[in-house]
Structure formats: structure tokens, C-alpha cells
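Posting for a labmate who doesn't have an account.
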Amino acid sequence: MPFEMPFQKMRVYQLAKQLAVLVQRAGIRDLELCDQATRAAKSCFLNIAEGLPSDQPRVRRRHLCIAKGSVCETAAAIDLCLTLELLDLETSTPMLELAVELKRMLSAMSR
């Protein structure tokens, strides 16, 4: 990438981007759940991008807390897709693993 902001190098940013890509490409076989999971993953990513560069602790914490809620929503949507057999285990496992790691990171960062 020819232009990169410092926060874009952070692991939490990279993982959130990876999760959004995986959800987008997952091929969820239900339009509503696909839309919900995709929007939640994108929300997580974009709130991280908005919160990380902030010099104001309250603003940063607020966006990271929103991102944490969005990653939990993403995981729940993927879990429901798995339960409803809209995704297979092989496709959903990497997304759920990323979501768990992101939630841990965001919880630590938002304290």
C-alpha cells in the first residue's frame, strides 16, 4: 500500500480487516443474515479505524467499545449461520476464531 496511516499497521486493525473480508467472501446462503454479518464486521473494522487514531481517550474508548459490540454481533451471526446450516464448520471456524481474538484485544484496549 503506497500510503498507510500508523494505526493501519496495528494487529487489531489487520485482524478486523481480515474478518470483514472473510465474512464478505463466506457465501452465507441467507440474504438477511449475510447482510447483518457483513455490516457488523464492517462496523467493527470502521470503528477501530475511527477510534485508534484519536488522541482523546473517551472518544477512542467509545469507538473501541462499539467495535467490540460489532464483533460480538458478527460472531453471533456466524454462529446462527452455522446452526441453520447456512455455512459449514470449515468456513465458519476461522471467522469465529478471529472474532474471539478481536474481542479479547478490544476488551483490553477499551479499559
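Reply:
Got it, the C-alpha cells are right above this. The chain has a mean pLDDT of 96.
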